[in-house]
Design a protein that fits this description.
Strand order of the largest sheet: 1-2
Order of helices and strands: HEEH
Shape: extended
Number of helices: 2
Radius of gyration: 15 Å
Distance between the termini: 50 Å
Length: about 70
């Protein structure tokens, strides 16, 4: 199956402990390194997302801002 330029999809298997391996092509594409911490987002209707590191920091900042607004 062909995907539009810049779009990718991989099938992965979830192990007995609920772990999965990010495919090498994806790790290379996004520069994931062993021991690196990543952000995993979830939406019950849309599924999981693992944003690139630069986006992860922006998303976390937005989440913190929203939580602070709720606390006011």
């Amino acid at each position: 199956m062909e995907f539009p330029q810049g779009k990718y999809a991989w099938m992965i298997k979830i192990g007995e402990k609920g772990q999965f391996v990010i495919p090498k092509e994806a790790r290379d594409l996004f520069g994931f390194q062993p021991g690196q911490t990543i952000l995993v987002l979830a939406d019950e209707k849309r599924g999981l997302a693992i944003p690139p590191r630069a986006d992860a920091e922006r998303v976390m900042s937005q989440i913190i801002e929203e939580l602070e607004k709720e606390g006011e």
